[in-house]
Amino acid sequence: MLSDIEIAQKNEMKPIVEIAEKLALSEDDLDLYGKYKAKINLTRLNHTFEKRKTMGKLILVTSINPTPAGEGKTTVSVGLADALSHLGQSAILALREPSLGPTMGMKGGAAGGGHAQVMPMDDINLHFTGDMHALTTANNALSAFIDNHIYQGNTCKINPTTITWKRALDLNDRSLRNVVVGLGGRVNGVPREDGFDITVASEMMAILCLARDIEDLKKRLSQIVIGESYDHKPVRVADLEVQGALALLLKDAIKPNLVQTLFHTPALVHGGPFANIAHGCNSVLATHTALQLADYTVTEAGFGADLGAEKFLDIKVPQLEKAPDAVVIVATIRALKMHGGVLKTNLKTENVEALKKGFTNLQKHIENIHRYGLPVVVAINEFSEDTAKEEACLIDLLHALAIPVAVTSVWENGPAGGVELAEAVMKVIENQKPEFVPLYEAAATTVREKVEKITKTIYGGSEVQFSKTALKQMQLFSENGWEHLPVCMAKTQYSLSDDPLKLGRPTNFDITIREFVPKLGAGFIVALTGEVMTMPGLPKKPAALKMDITEDGKITGLF
């Protein structure tokens, strides 16, 4: 069996200008990054958008709570877009960029898999067009400006002990979670405690993914709160007067990246926030651009629907000003058996009873999406160890709830393996009109009310416990007029609760908020639950151990 990268290396890509032609874009609309990658020139696009009066249909792909290996949500997204194209439809993908953290860590690459990949997968999984590096540079430039401001006289009267802005790196590195900077005497700065977030969990990433244009980007950058003054007033980037410099560093990163799938479906791969510790959606610019360029846009939100989809619907949709026309929930038989109590080592053994028990996890996610007034299609992502009895059982359970379901085999069969899903999604879009209802009205509810609404409605929890720190912060948010902002929950992806060991559909549990992080530039407040970290660590045997490059430049082991 060929690996993902071996399949990709056997594929022959088309020049990116040919892919652009499918979208009625010319070479003048592109900033070329070699033969097979390009950024879309946003200034040129305005003219193209004027010609198209209506936006296409939006399909959001999400999933049940995943196993540590993931459930193939990106693979299904790619396969669905390819299948729509295969059926003669005008389709485009809008995906996130992979992070080097999980690429080098536990999960390996994140550009799809098998015969449902975006290309060139090696570039996309590694340095791509440099967006991650630009974000990391802008993030750390701000840290340098902050420390220099304090060193040069501190006219803003920043209290170094209150600085919340952290440095960033797009790798998993637990050693950098807590550091001390400015050591070595006065010539080296003012000593203070600091730390690193992974770039994809940074506010800089969130801002890039929610900004609508350069002016909006600068406005959001200016609103970043980096800490407090000695008289307890928030200090913003605008006070340091460096928003222009930061925007300059992101002038190319803000442009969506155009690539292609193995089967030459256009794909906009742009932005990459995690969904367990950030908002988990690709950029508003990329999704909006895709909606202007094709009849069907397939996008994904990270991890389970309790994280990525909730944040897509409550944080991204208000900025995008477009709700999904249909939502695909990806489920795997192996994950449902795990939610039913089967150990990871026994998932290949048939167990229909465990599948029935674990089905409650999928059922909860379906209920949640229906709560938003959106139609659902379930995609069963097929694995070789699935049995006919298990598959039939899952289909019967979904039919009993009148939920459209399709078995997908896009990893093995490419577009042909996604035709059933594509037809089911098109039928739902044609026959079921979405009536989107947000979970909460951000401007009319307090931070506490938002957290409680998410916990009780989406997670199925009982109560929310707030630490003393969190209680003090909520009081501060009220005093500063930040209550109107949506909440971005940082929570384990493996469970509906904040305990990764509580699988299935847990009940009678509380969620504990240990701390909040206000991200005024992004326009939301992060609520940290449980033990979730904003800088992950590497596993005992990281995926990097299998990666190599030969003398002739051939890459091996990249998933």
Question: What tags apply to this protein structure?
Answer:
single chain, about 550 residues, alpha/beta, Rossmann fold, Domain 2, N(10)-formyltetrahydrofolate synthetase, Formyltetrahydrofolate synthetase, domain 3, twelve-stranded mixed sheet, four-stranded mixed sheet, 20 helices, about 35% helix, about 20% strand
Would you kindly provide a written description of the structure presented here, covering whatever features stand out?
With 559 residues, this protein is an alpha/beta fold. It folds into three domains: 306 residues, P-loop containing nucleotide triphosphate hydrolases (Rossmann fold); 114 residues, Domain 2, N(10)-formyltetrahydrofolate synthetase (2-Layer Sandwich), CATH 3.30.1510.10; 85 residues, Formyltetrahydrofolate synthetase, domain 3 (Roll), CATH 3.10.410. It is built from 20 helices and 24 strands. The strands form six sheets. Strands 1, 2, 3, 4, 5, 6, 13, 14, 15, 16, 17 and 18 form a twelve-stranded mixed beta sheet that branches. The chain is globular and about 70 Å long. The two termini are 13 Å apart.
Q: Kindly identify the CATH topology of the largest domain.
A: Rossmann fold
What portion of the residues fall into strands of 2 or more residues?
15-25%
Number of helices: 20
- How far is the N terminus from the C terminus? 13 Å
Q: Which of globular, elongated, flat, extended, rod-shaped describes the shape?
A: globular
Oligomer: single chain
CATH architecture classification name of the largest domain: 3-Layer(aba) Sandwich
The helix-and-strand class reads alpha/beta
